[in-house]
Amino acid sequence: MEHLALGLVLLAGTLVTSTLYQGHLSSIKEVALDMAPNSFDDQYQGCSHLMEEELAELNRTEFTINSIYAQAWALAAAEWRSRRSCVPPVLRPEQAIAILAYTLPGPLYQNFNAAVREAGRSRREYLDSFHFKVLHFLLSEALRALREAQPRRCYQVYRGVQDIRFTTQRGRTVRFGHFTSTSLRSQNTQQFGKDTFFSVCTCYGVPIKDFSIIAQEEEVLIPPFECFEVTNATWRDGNAYIQLYSKETFSNYNCEFIKGDVPTGWSGVQGGRWWEVAQSHQGKRASPLWGGRWGELALGLVSLH
Predict the structure, then answer these.
(1) Known catalytic residue: 273?
(2) Is residue 265 part of a domain?
(3) Which is the catalytic residue, given 159, 175, 199, 246?
(4) Which one of the listed residues 39, 181, 199, 212 is annotated catalytic?
């Protein structure tokens, strides 16, 4: 009788474990890893100074429309004020605050990345429905500044994903299509998920440890426009293991906000003057962003209204 009872207990445990495992498998979403064709992947090549001239007004608009962004920015600005004396002077304050905001625990990075993955569906989608224009620009510029401040190099990084099993094939060219957090330490990624495990050689991602909320994660942030070759893709114990090697960059968009077709209701100055304004800035350096009302807004020192 004792053996029968023990057998029933073991059987029940096996059934429960099996049910839980099957339940987990059914909750996993399979997603094709491809070139992320709907990604908004602007690199702002040749127009950074023109974008900077629009940031103050654009940021006020997005603070009003996007409360998740506004709240995260306020928290990040407060964090930057408390640590700015210890932060390397590689980035301008607004760029450093953008990274701090992105790395905050909370809904911002998830909402932001989801929006980045879809904002490239069309020009109008970006102009009218993408309310992270300032954050996208500042993160892009921050990564560029960090890359330029160090010798050109590539990094071996890792990323774990929960509840999504990415599918791809060896030899394909792919992009993440959003700003992608990875770690220099493979063990750090296990806490974020094991359904897909990426091993990535990135040549455009850069370490952001000095500007991240959680420095011990040894985070390397990869931009949406970096392309990779899939060098290996295997399945083990129901999990996907994908190895990627950096190839090049690719963008469908460049300088979209200042090409003359502005968001509905936008009161900015450029309008159709893209070429005229661009020509007038040839050989000139933009006036510093930091200072004036934009600087105060970025630091959270003044009201948005």
Answers:
(1) no
(2) yes
(3) 159
(4) 181
Give me the pLDDT at residue 187, please: 72
Which of 53, 94, 219, 226 is catalytic? The answer is: 219
Give the domain CATH number at 39: 3.90.176.10
Residue 4, in any domain of the structure: no
pLDDT for residue 89? 84
Residue 206: Cβ within 10 Å count: 22
For residue 172, indicate whether it is catalytic: no
Task: Examine residue 9 and state whether it is found in any structural domain, yes or no.
Answer: no
Per the structure, how many domains does the chain have?
1
> Which residue do the tokens 């987990």 mark?
24
Q: If we measure between CA atoms, which residue out of 53, 22, 2, 43 comes closest to residue 270?
A: 53
Provide the CA 127 distance to its chain's centre, in angstroms.
19
pTM of full prediction above 0.70? yes
Domain that holds residue 67: 29-299
Q: Which amino acid is at 180?
A: T
Active site residue 219: yes
Does the residue 21 lie in any domain? no
**Which tens digit of pLDDT belongs to each residue from 4-39?**
343 433 333 443 333 334 444 557 889 999 999 999
